[in-house]
Amino acid sequence: MALSIPWDLLKNVILGNISESDIRIIDSWRKSSELNQLIYNEVIADDNFKQCIINGRWDDISGNWEKLLLRIKPGGKSINFSGKKVYLIRSAAAVILLMLGISFGLFYEKMQQKDFQLNEGYSYIYSPRGQRTQVILPDRTKVWLNSESSLRYAASFNQHVREVYLEGEGFFEVKKNRNKPFLVNANEVKVKVYGTSFNIKAFPDDKYIETTLIEGKLSVIPLYPNGKSGNEIFLEPNEKCIFEKTRHEGNKIINAEEKNDTDKDLPGNSLHPLRKLPNITLTKNIDSEPEKLWKEGKLVFKNETFGELEIRLERWYDVNIHFEDKKIKNYRFTGVFDKETINQAMEALKISSQQSYQYEILYREIYLK
Questions:
Q1: Is the same domain home to 35 and 179?
Q2: Which of 47, 81, 87, 276 sits at a 20 to 30 Å CA gap from 183?
Q3: Dist. CA 81–CA 106, nearest whole Å
Q4: Cα dihedral sign, 222-226-227-229
């Protein structure tokens, strides 16, 4: 089954350099079949595919798609999902595009990762929006950087002390070395590690810094603007420390009963608190799946509002979400996205929602109404 795709014209669409006559050709091709429309939507919404087309690698893409279509016959057959009908042609397109993601994932990881030496003798690694990046440090510690995250460390790393600076979200598997402590500076906290695996979420625009211990041992040390440090707080496996970015310096421990209503907005507020400082909350027996699985390309969300999920989707897919109807922000979702494109993710959210709403994707802009 030969697949006719106007790659040259799609490239011009992506680059914004297309004539009116070519636009008519593209429109005609899109409207000629539902599969063509789905292919167009997925390619335009995914930076990986766009870059692949710009670099002239569409011959390989066409070959993969044609081989897959020999085994899959998208058509009118339908299945029921959450009480609604979904045509299998969507599944066929999803598998095609997933195959492309597997084929070119490593290529793009290498292309997108920014790893270079700064003039001050620091190495700097940046993982842009829509990408996840793995780094192996000189001491063989493994670090995964989530979208829009960066890691910096000095050229003298591993000589006397192992110290890194994180902005964004990172998952660490630290190589044990009792003689050389491992320190992570993350905005207003410092994490001291004793050979362990853990996750730190410290985006500049977020209200909280979250440190989750998966296994091993670590401590969290608050850092204050006047240069002073707070008390060292030790974590056990499956515990999370949530630090609110305020300018407190108090060390008094507040009992869990003294928590007020303002704490309901804390990440993971349904968890059981151990104890609380004026700007620090410790929780135990957490569900650490969201922290562990994102590095495997899985976006996990459990009973999150669309408003809470918004920023995660924006970073994960490199898009901007606009709520034309603010009530949609309060809709709650639970699920896992595993290599889905933004089109597939938005459709899945819409299908699984108990409320009715519409969405429109225009390049990187998503409008909910």
A1: no
A2: 276
A3: 33
A4: negative
How many whole angstroms from its chain centre is CA 59?
Answer: 30
Domain boundary among 49, 77, 111: 111
pTM: 0.62
End of a domain among 91, 111, 131? 111
The per-residue pLDDT for 127 is: 87
**Which pLDDT tens digit goes with each residue over 61-108?**
555 555 544 443 333 333 232 333 333 333 344 444 444 443 333 333
In whole angstroms, give the CA distance from residue 192 to residue 234.
9
CA distance 28 to 20: 12
Phi/psi of residue 140, nearest 5 degrees: 75, 15
Query: How crowded is the C-beta side of 113, counted as CA atoms within 13 Å?
Result: 20
**Per-residue pLDDT tens over the stretch 145-189:** 999 899 988 888 888 889 999 999 999 999 988 888 899 999 889
The answer as to whether 2 is a domain residue is no
Q: Return the biggest CA–CA distance within the chain.
A: 71
Domain count, the chain: 3
d(Cα 139, Cα 173) in Å, to the nearest integer? 11
109, 111, 114, 115 alpha-carbon torsion, rounded to 10°:
90
Taking the C-alpha atoms of residue 22 and residue 10, their distance in angstroms, rounded to an integer, is: 10
Q: Which 3-state string (H, E, C) describes 173-242?
A: ECCCCCCCCEEEEECCEEEEECCCEEEEEECCCCCEEEEEEEECCEEEEEECCCCCECCCEEECCCEEEE
330: domain CATH number? 3.55.50.30
User: What pLDDT digit, counting tens, does each position of 109-135 carry?
Assistant: 433 444 444 445 778 888 888 888 899
Q: Is residue 292 part of a domain?
A: no
